[in-house]
Amino acid sequence: MRRALSLLALVAACSPPLADDAAAHAIENRCASDADCAAGAVCAAGACYAHGGDLARVVLEVVPDSTAAYGAGVSFLVDQPSVGDGDLARDVTLPARSVVRGHVEASALPNGCKYAAAADGSLEVRVQLVRTDAALGLPRATFAANATSATVADAPGSWSFEVDAVPGTYDVHVLPLHDDACPVAPLLVVGAPVAPGDVSLLAALAAPAPLTGSIVAPADASLEGWSVDIIEPALGRRLSTVARLGAGDPTNFALTWRPAQALHATSDPAGGTLLSLSGAAAGASGPLLRVSPPDGVVAPTLLWDLAAADLQFHGKVSLDTSSLRVLPRAVSGGLRGSTGARPPVRGALSIVALGGQAGLTAAFATSVATRDDGTFVTALPPGAYRVFAVPDASEPWALTEAKWFVTADGGDPPTRVVDLLPQSEIAGRATLASTGEPIAGASVDAVAAIDASPTAVLDAALGNVGVAPRGASDFAGLDGAFRSSLDPGVYHVSVRPPASSGLPWFVAPRTTVAPAGDAAARATLDARVAFAVPLGGLLRARGA
Predict the structure, then answer these.
(1) pLDDT tens digits along 28-40
(2) Which of 68, 109, 265, 291 could hold 302 in an S-S bridge, CB 3.0 to 4.6 Å?
(3) What is the DSSP string of 366-403?
(4) Rounded to 5 degrees, what are φ and ψ at 114?
(5) Alpha carbons within 13 A on the beta-carbon side of 203
(6) Cα(297)–Cα(385) distance, rounded to whole angstroms?
(7) Which residues have a Cβ under 8 Å from the Cβ of 394 and sit 6 or more positions away?
(8) Which helix (H) or strand (E) covers residue 353, if one does?
(9) SS3 307
(10) Are 279 and 338 in contact (CB under 8 A)?
(11) HSE-CB of 3 using CA atoms within 13 angstroms
(12) Strand-pair partners of 447
């Protein structure tokens, strides 16, 4: 292994530059023969590499830059099998773009519908494709377009859409762009396979399912102006029309909705792929019935599992919220340090309801910034809450969670103070695994580990979703040592040697950093960077 003679170029807003003699300590992975590498490594293309690795298959995310002639700024996922032994002559060709074209038709439209002018019954819709690979920790790419219509003799012709995307597996949400006089239930298709090239999506919507019901209002508020709809539990995408509640008690409503659908892919006789609806999607998470307050009203959003609310599957529900209290109460308090002189701390609070009260699932979340003296005032409906106090980045305190209960009868503490924990710490040393040499100038990044959930909306309503801990960055010193202060939590930690070193990253997934005061509060990493398994070649655009 040879040492580099060039000066390390490191830029960081919050870390001082390394000393001028860092160049003499900077490792650079260069070799002329296997003898220049450690035992078990080989010299290839002028660098030391491992004989093999544990990963047999990887997925590459390729994002061409904004000046690229093909796919500029688009996230391509390219599967690469058989990488365990390495390959420096592997050319990767980006797949052809996918162009999804089609139209959505509906029968039995309400009288006076503006869609009726289209002879084929096609609808003006917005089509959104969301890549489902995000569940694997990969980027959730989204592509969308609105349908357009050619005007024929001053009347709209067929409504059709065209979405430019990349190959992958998608959820497709079709949202009719109607006015209140012409409500049409949206369509959600899950797990749609989108192949390269031309893809035709022709969706003939069957009659939607009706749902009627009544709601008994809370004891201390009217539900006039509130809305009722049905959503899916992952991203909260709407599956139904929206019903507005009146002033009655109980108040009645009626809407229509569609269960999530699946698609069937076949070869299109005209070329490309044809996608057609094949019925209800198997294994899809059950929809939620949502009752929401008007914009600007401080009140919770109420959720019911539709299957539990309509046990007989008759399309009728009776909802009772009379035991719920929704009128907000004033809440004030402050943030302060938990040690020493307990100084006031400036920051913000993120407040999340713990499932509501009276046996109802009630989602409510709000945030409030403190004044310069650390005090705050807000208003909350009665209920149990998780409170996440987030100090300003300049403060030496950690994100801290507290539990509050706000009563309906006013028997609450006059003020609520959150005592902030000191920051925790992650520390370690970056070294070359084969020799123990320090890797000066390696950047160290800790990013909160956040898992995708198929029931994210319900999780949030139940108070199971908190505030992600803030990440941290640092650089290893001349001896390879690093140390960063950060919030307690679970992180993906990466140690990245300087690009000039030719060394791979060291990654420690799901590293737990305990709260300060815990014996394990300081997370220690022995970041021994091993030689990489080589994977390289030429990246090509389709047809290049």
Answers:
(1) 999 999 999 988 8
(2) 291
(3) EEEE--TTSEEEEEE-SEEEEEEEEE-TTSSB--EEEE
(4) -65, -20
(5) 31
(6) 18
(7) none
(8) strand 347-353
(9) helix
(10) no
(11) 13
(12) 492
